[in-house]
Amino acid sequence: MRLPVFSSKFTPNAVLVVLINFSAVYARTATSEADEAQITDPVEECTAYYYAPVTDALDGFPTIWQPATIVSNDTEAQNIWANISQSVPTNILPHGDIYGDWNDTSYNVAEDPDCWWTKSLCTTPKLSTLPADVASIPEPETMGYGFDDGPNCSHNAFYDYLLEQNQKATMFFIGSNVLDWPYEAMRAIDEGHEICAHTWSHHYMTGFSSEDAFAELYYSMKAIKLVLGVTPTCWRPPFGDVDDRIRAIAEGLGLQTIIWQYDSFDWEEQSGNITAAQVYTNYDNFIARAENGTFNTEGSIMLTHELNNFTMQTAVTYYPKLKDTFKYLVPVGVALNKTQPYVETNYSLPTFDEYISGNVTTNSSSSSSSSSNSTSSSTSQSSSADVPLIQTISSVLLASITLGILMLAV
Question: Where are the domains of the chain?
Fold first, then answer.
């Protein structure tokens, strides 16, 4: 199967100017998630549309695709940050800037005092109050299957393929993308995929001040809550850029950090930094490791993306090979037996044993509606999901304080 061709340059950075204007310019009318899922023309898929719940709430968010700061009149965010900030280490300073420019070469990589993944691949925090990152899968011969940078506006053919294969995945959604493409986000959760946060604007997290790093996570969670009605409990740092300061902020928000062991580098093909052939080699090498028994006692995670036509087409091309090589392909949460993936209790994931026996979804609440006025009977309208974000986060924070947990987990 081949996906419809869409520009390989369609990335958050490449279309930043267009996306920023989505709140003011709408070229078409979209009435439901189901209607959006039927579109086969990628250009039409990626034409901006109006969705009232998002438009009405934009004043409560930072500017879409701009680095996040706490919105000036957002007292909920300010209060949550005031509580969390007390547990964030102040002796760990920002590294470089949010664009990944690390001119300071003074960091001691050998000692790695901050457990800075970008420099050392450290996944076990130096701060004892923080849990380890998830970088592998406890189930042998198993791949934690997932994709970063969604929801991509042109993902219909890709999601159709996953649906045909009855394959669920962990989708790491960027907050700005969720507000730009709400119906596309709804499709993911309604079809049983696990949703995790991937920050608000997809920058290097250790370059942010602590307050702004909090805003990146908080508003990505708030966007997912607004559109999908659920509050995620997992996240992945863009580029894997995380240290104990950022982990502490994430832990305070109830977010588990998920990294990876292997990188397909599919995301770099669009920039020209590597070739498609090199990406295919990375996939082949990962498969070869599985074939030679590398994952016989513990499964693995490879970084792949819902970023553009190339990354999604490559995922489709290699899916049969991964399926044949690994005993199981499952969402990360399933591999961890994390049956409650969100703060709200109206949605659950199957256990690993349930999933591999064929029960790939449990208690999935629909977030779609065919209402002609673009309103959605989303998951957020169910009684269990009506809990305001500040209440759900505050509950997590209170539990953390009660248990004596002082730092955040990614």
Answer: 16-101+111-403
